[in-house]
Amino acid sequence: MSFTDSTDSGSDRPVSVLWGCELSSARSSCTFRVTDDWRCEQQLVLRTVCLGETARDEFHVLEVLAEDGDSQTPVPLATLKPSVLPSASLSGVELTPPVTFRLRAGSGPVYVSGQHVSIMDLSSGEEEEEEEEEAADEAPKKPPKGSGAQKGGTAKKRKREKEEELNSLAPEGPPPAKGRGAGRGRKAAPKK
Fold first, then answer.
1. Average pLDDT over residues 40-46
2. Which residues contact 3 (CB under 8 A, 6 or more apart)?
3. Is-contact 112 49, C-beta < 8 A?
4. Of 113, 111, 112, 109, which is closest to residue 58 (Cα–Cα)?
5. What span, in angstroms and rounded, lies between the C-alpha atoms of 55 and 105?
6. pLDDT of residue 4
7. 156 by DSSP, 3-state: which?
8. Which of 27, 42, 118, 181 could cross-link to 34 by cystine, CB 3.0-4.6 Å?
């Protein structure tokens, strides 16, 4: 199961979509794939794995198969048991699709959740940056005469006003003495 939303190919930042799947004895594997239509780098960032409320008190072993060429070695991600460890955090596990999750042992249900992250392709990002640089080159480099002097004067005036305001808020007397009751509006106890 995944929740999708449209990607904006013109954005510079990654687009993140919530992703999750349920594994049980009825469906013991789930494969996360992306279509070739997407022209950006895809990653699946795992967050948590947990047992469902109807899971039996037995060991549930979740493993992942990363499909990198000919190598498909299963790697155990978590071993869960309701009475001992019903959930585990998988933060820091980032996988590149296609990836297959498999319930190696146990009857489930086991829930795997994470984020499907689409990262902008660097080649298209460079083209956009070049276009922005060209537009910046066409813009005038120097401001019109007289406008720079006014901006600098008002900026200095604002800075001066802020400094005066901060100085007026500062206490004029010496800082309170350290010790019991200092700074709470109490007078120091007389010495005996």
1. 86
2. 17, 18, 19
3. yes
4. 109
5. 12
6. 46
7. helix
8. 42
Between β-strands 41-51 and 29-32, what pairing exists: parallel, antiparallel or unpaired? unpaired
**Average pLDDT across the chain, whole number:** 75
pTM, to two decimals: 0.55
Q: What is the DSSP string of 77-144?
A: EEEEBTTTBSEEEEEEEEEPSSEEEEEEES---EEEEEEEEEE--HHHHHHHHHHHHHHHHHS-SSPP
Return the structure tokens found at 63: 């493993």
Rounded CA separation 187/172 (Å):
19
Residue 130 has pLDDT above 70, yes or no: no
- Tokens representing 44? 């699946």
Model confidence at 57, in pLDDT bands (50, 70, 90)?
very high
pLDDT, position 72:
77
Burial degree of 101 (CB within 10 A; 0-12, 13-18, 19+) = buried
Angstrom distance (rounded) from CA 104 to CA 111: 14
Residue 112, both tokens: 């795997």
Dihedrals φ, ψ of 135, to 5°?
-65, -35
Sign for the pseudo-dihedral over CA of 88, 93, 97, 98: negative
Maximum pairwise Cα distance, the chain: 86
Backbone φ, ψ for residue 104 (5° rounding): -75, -40
Candidates 104, 97, 99; CA nearest to 63 is: 104
Q: Token match 């004067």: residue? A: 153
